[in-house]
Amino acid sequence: MGAEEERPPSPRAAEPAKLRLRRELGLASSVSLIAGCMIGAGIFMNPQHVLYHMGSPGGSLVIWAACGLLATLGALSYAELGTLITESGGDYVYILRTFGALPAFLVIYVSTLLVRPAGIAAMSLTFAEYVVAPFYPSCSSMPVVLVKCVAAACILILALANCRSVRLATGLMNLCTVAKVLALLVIIGGGFWVLVRGSAGDTLQNAFADTTQQLGSISIAFYQGLWSFNGWNNLNLVTEELRNSKESDPGRLGLAGAPLGGSLHLRVSKRSVFQWEPSVLRRCQGGAYARYPVHGPRPVSHPFPSSDVHRGSGSDHDHPWKLQQHCQLLQARGKVLLLLLGLWGFVLWMIHGTTISCLLYLKVKKKDLPRSYKVPIIIPVIVLLASIYLILAPIIDQPQMEFLYVFLFMLSGIVVYFPIIYFRYRPRLLQEATVQIQLFLEVAPTMKNVD
Predict the structure, then answer these.
(1) Which of 165, 310, 356, 418 is most buried per CB count within 10 Å?
(2) In terms of domain of life, where is this protein from (predicted)?
């Protein structure tokens, strides 16, 4: 027998295996992601605060409707961006591909250390208050340590589910979304019953009494309402996990979830402000203490689609290694104060405004880029003008040093950018720590998964 001929290894076999994200998000999970993120802690937490800053039930409902309209227009704008740039990362990737590395790094710098941890911490604290509140008399002080421990446990459970598998995370997300929608439908039904009985007659007759005229208070009310609507752009963070990102682009799927979340928000807010006197809702500033008799305890939770903004930045080497570990657990304290001051919305709408500027730039300068969906240019212009108003109005009407602190914090990212990103300085100790954390958590960087 002759010696068998040795076959040269195929090029495919010689290539090292590449780690990519699995495309496991279908239509139902995608819509559930948007609706589930929008229908969260905010709708149970913020009707009281919107009413407090607007001064009247009618004024607060106008704010809620305007927030829903702005979220829908924002989703329309992000729809076109999702067809132009089919990468995970959301705002970061859009700014990176349009304006370059420095502004994109500032976005991920602020998102990692401030915006995302603040949102996750606030939602987990709200969940913890609802869990603990039934065991204590209404409007009495709950143990702060207990609330924080429950909030930390909530974050850990969701993080573990998200790390375990995409299917487990999406299954939990779908289950929570269905539960929250059913709970809100019960609340809405109770509100309609109150209106039918005529119990809200006096409130309806004086719906717009004492409405504030201050631009700063109106903008803070917008911040509170928009935080409840936040999540309409979260599918843009996980574009590379969609089963068919070309036919089911993130923006269009976002439009399916945004109206669902917006309509439920408006109806629940109407039930809240018309069933209860404004003085009752404003009396308790203790979050769940005022919310408990209105809504009852409603646990809210969803996985972390925001993790893909960090993964997207890390894959482009524009994310410092020491910032790649999430900060939510370390910051599960005091972030509700940040939200109440409006600083969270101030930062977030600076980011949204910059992203919308990317779309306007691409529509004017890159008209020939292939896109499967185009939004009328007036829509991103309206969103950009709204962003400018939300940024400047509280500063002009009610200037606070906190806004300056936040702006300086954003600029401090420049000091981090040049040595670590521009000059590629990697401290040996930091690299070793990153490797050990990756081994312990069994995580690794992934390749781009772009069609």
Answers:
(1) 356
(2) Eukaryota
Specify if 13 maps to a domain.
no
Amino acid at 395: I
Give buried/exposed letters for 231-253 (b at 16+ CB in 10 A, else e).
Answer: bbbbbbbbbbbbeebeebbbbbb
Single out the residue of 93, 76, 111 nearest to residue 375, CA to CA: 76
Query: Each residue of 143-183: pLDDT tens digit?
Result: 888 988 998 998 888 888 877 777 787 788 778 778 877 87
Residues 6+ apart with CB under 8 A from 109: 323, 410, 413, 416, 417
* Residue 81 and residue 94 in contact, taking contact as beta carbons nearer than 8 Å: yes
CA nearest neighbour of 206 among 64, 63, 57 = 57
The residue range of the domain holding 51 is 22-441
CA angle 126, 128, 132 (to 5 degrees): 120
Q: Is the pTM of this model over 0.85?
A: no
Handedness of CA 401, 407, 410, 412 (dihedral sign): negative
pLDDT for 216: 77
Which residue, chain included where needed, has tokens 């646990």?
299
How many structural domains is the chain composed of?
1
H or E stretch including 253? helix 250-275
Nearest alpha-carbon partner for 257 in 239, 237, 227, 230: 230
CA gap 290, 139 in Å, rounded: 7
In a domain, 357, yes or no: yes
In a domain, 15, yes or no: no
Query: Would residue 150 count as lying in a domain?
Result: yes
Would you tell me how many other CB atoms lie within 10 Å of the CB of residue 444?
A: 8
